[in-house]
Write a structure and sequence with these properties.
It is a single chain. By secondary structure, the protein is mainly beta. It has three domains: 364 residues, TolB, C-terminal domain (Neuraminidase, 6 Propeller), CATH 2.120.10; 68 residues, Immunoglobulins (Immunoglobulin-like), CATH 2.60.40.10; 44 residues, no CATH class. The protein has three helices and 40 strands. A hairpin with a 5-residue loop joins strand 26 and strand 27. The two termini are 17 Å apart. The N terminus is likely disordered.
């Protein structure tokens, strides 16, 4: 018997539909360019795939299209707006992939009157193509064009973060198996989002979360600033903000995968600028003055920069308004020109960029900071860091509560043997250019799930009668030598028989 354990990457963000009939499929590397999408939006959009990377549906905040690019039943008339910066974000029901929330925001041109609302999709309806079973449930009004979602610190729930208009208050909603808790966590922090005379532009601009969940950043479009805050992914509290000021039309934002750098886009007329800030530079002033200009466009034919979005391939994609190309930041974990800002990095064929890229849950596009193989008791667990080329060195603590030197090691990869079952918190400290970056993950060390099976007995019995081979492992997935997938196999002739059992 062979028991195999497989690592499964999250692929919920592998399909993107955005702009004017533009799309990407990240199930291939490099991503496959798509032109089959029905979407036609100037700004906000969102899309979602299954855990295995199969397109589920996408939206501009008003209309919902299924994976066949047809409008979903009841999929017209959502209270978002294609002119809203983040017109929607899609959040699955925790532990129930049948249902999804679509959270939508109205736009400044409508004076944000519809606010923040949610609709519910049942993906088992309509022959597996989905149906809207509840629509436009109000959460907050008036609300800015800013909304993002991030996993709770337990990783078994989500936070939805929005900002109230005419207020300095963030509203953070807790989402678990019981639904959306309408009693939000309210944090008064940062600038009051309010009109500049008759200009409601400060409502626009992106809201993004950092990969490790401890920071958020937002753009105050015509207010001329970007802000960064601490975020507690256990309590939902937002605090300790500071501002990057004097930006005309502060709009797009993205964090690097390692959380060290913040990328920001601003534009004035036909001029646009992309800057990189080092959030580990030191004091607040050190961070503010760490800005490095990566790209500055002055020719209107080049298109102005707008949104930046981290992809499942750990590269940041950058839109340019009216252009059938995306710029790419290929190594966003590296500083300055080493991040490899690439102009016209990807052609969209007949698709055209506008101001937005899909609004994604950050944990779906962020690779785990490190991986491990084999969680069997007394086995050898192998730990390793993906994309480690930019890391100078690393220090491991295999049990964050232990003070034994034997539970630590150095190197970009390492092995460790666990001799007691239990849940362990493993931490790695990466050293990059003299700066320390900490990451942690939990793993469950268990006794191996041993399959139960019948032995054949004597050869004559195999030849003379039928034998049933039985295999069992809790939540096991079975694959016999001929591809059959039952937990048992009926043997009626001699031969070599094998079953592979995959367990979670």
């Amino acid at each position: 018997m062979i028991i195999s354990f497989q690592l499964k990457a999250q692929k919920e963000s592998n399909y993107w539909y955005f702009g004017y009939h533009a799309g990407l499929n990240f199930n291939t590397s490099p991503p496959t360019v798509l032109t089959d999408g029905a979407i036609y939006t100037d700004e906000g959009c969102a899309s979602i795939s299954s855990h295995s990377g199969k397109l589920q549906f996408y939206t501009d905040g008003i209309t919902v299209w299924n994976r066949k690019h047809n409008v979903m039943p009841n999929g017209i008339g959502l209270d978002g707006n294609a002119s809203s910066t983040q017109s929607g974000v899609i959040v699955p029901f925790p532990d129930n992939p049948r249902y999804y929330y679509i959270f939508t925001t109205d736009c400044q041109e409508h004076h944000l009157i519809y606010g923040l609302r949610y609709s519910i999709v049942d993906m088992e309806a309509n022959g597996g193509l989905g149906d809207i079973i509840s629509k436009n449930n109000l959460l907050l009004t008036p609300a800015c064009e800013k909304v993002t979602a991030i996993k709770h610190g337990t990783k078994r729930a989500y936070w939805l973060i929005a900002h109230k208009w005419n207020s300095d208050s963030f509203f953070t909603f807790y989402i678990d198996n019981n639904g959306v808790n309408i009693k939000s966590v309210i944090s008064e922090a940062g600038t009051i989002m309010e009109p500049n005379g008759s200009d409601w532009g400060p409502a626009a601009g992106y809201l993004k979360a950092s990969p490790n969940g401890n920071k958020i950043a937002l753009g105050n479009n015509t207010g001329g600033l970007f802000e960064v805050f601490d975020f507690n992914d256990t309590t939902g509290v937002i605090s300790n903000g500071f501002s990057f000021t004097n930006y005309a039309n502060a709009y797009g934002l993205e964090f690097s995968p390692n959380g060290r750098f913040l990328y920001a886009s601003s534009e004035y007329g036909f001029e646009s600028t992309i800057k990189q800030y080092d959030l580990f530079a030191g004091s607040t002033n050190d961070i503010i003055y760490s800005g490095i200009t990566l790209q500055h466009y002055t020719d209107p034919k080049q298109g102005t920069n707008a949104e930046l979005q981290l992809g499942p391939d750990s590269q940041i994609y950058v839109t340019r308004l009216g252009i059938s190309m995306l710029d790419i930041i290929k190594r966003p974990n590296l500083q300055g020109i080493d991040c490899q800002y690439t102009i016209n990095g990807l052609s969209l064929n007949t698709g055209i960029c506008r101001l937005g890229l899909p609004n994604l849950i950050k944990s779906y596009v962020i690779p785990e900071p490190f991986y491990y193989d084999d969680t069997c008791l007394n086995g050898i667990t192998h730990f390793y860091i993906p994309d480690s080329g930019y890391i100078d060195s690393a220090w491991w603590n295999f049990d964050i509560l232990s003070h034994n030197k034997s539970d630590s090691a150095t190197g970009l990869s390492s092995n460790h043997q666990y001799t007691k079952p239990g849940i362990y918190t493993v931490r790695v400290t990466e050293f990059v250019g003299g700066v320390k970056v900490n990451f942690s993950r939990t793993l469950n060390i268990t006794s191996p799930s041993i399959p139960q099976y019948n032995f054949f007995g004597h050869d004559s019995l195999i030849c003379d009668s039928t034998t049933v081979l039985k295999a069992y492992a809790q939540n096991g997935i079975y694959k016999w030598q001929d591809g059959s997938t039952d937990s048992f196999y009926v043997v009626s002739r001699p031969g070599l028989y094998k079953v592979i059992i995959t367990t979670p």
